[in-house]
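Q: What residues go here?
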């Protein structure tokens, strides 16, 4: 399989999942907070559609990234409805990483209304990341 075919499969699967979530929402079922998958094809849409967006740039081989991953999941639950969280695999999205000058991972970017507000480089404790998000977004 080539990269284009894999991307088409991912996009199709994503559309199916989004349709299922919309169907559940229509039935009145509560929607759990989730961390969105960010890629080059969806980035602009996500940025425009979420006034407060936190994106964790990571890679599978990165040990510190694996330490930050559960923190991002927990903060997504805690801040559901106020802040949207996403994860971007730098190995799969090198142009997006280059666009923001990501030279070390994990790097967490904080966007408000489409503008980059802050960046957190490295693995920090949950409280530190939470405090930066709260300060940046004025929560």
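A:
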């Amino acid at each position: 399989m080539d990269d284009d075919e894999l991307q088409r499969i991912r996009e199709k699967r994503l559309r199916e999942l989004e349709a299922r979530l919309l169907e559940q929402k229509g039935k009145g079922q509560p929607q759990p907070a989730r961390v969105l998958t960010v890629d080059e094809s969806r980035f602009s849409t996500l940025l425009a559609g979420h006034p407060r967006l936190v994106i964790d740039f990571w890679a599978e081989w990165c040990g510190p990234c694996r330490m930050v991953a559960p923190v991002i999941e927990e903060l997504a639950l805690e801040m559901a409805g106020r802040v949207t969280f996403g994860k971007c695999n730098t190995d799969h999205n090198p142009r997006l990483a280059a666009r923001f000058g990501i030279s070390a991972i994990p790097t967490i970017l904080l966007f408000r209304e489409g503008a980059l507000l802050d960046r957190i480089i490295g693995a920090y404790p949950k409280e530190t990341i939470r405090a930066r998000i709260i300060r940046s977004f004025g929560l």
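A: Context that may help when evaluating the design: The domain at 33-137 is CATH 3.40.30.10 (Glutaredoxin). The chain has two domains: 1-31, 33-137.
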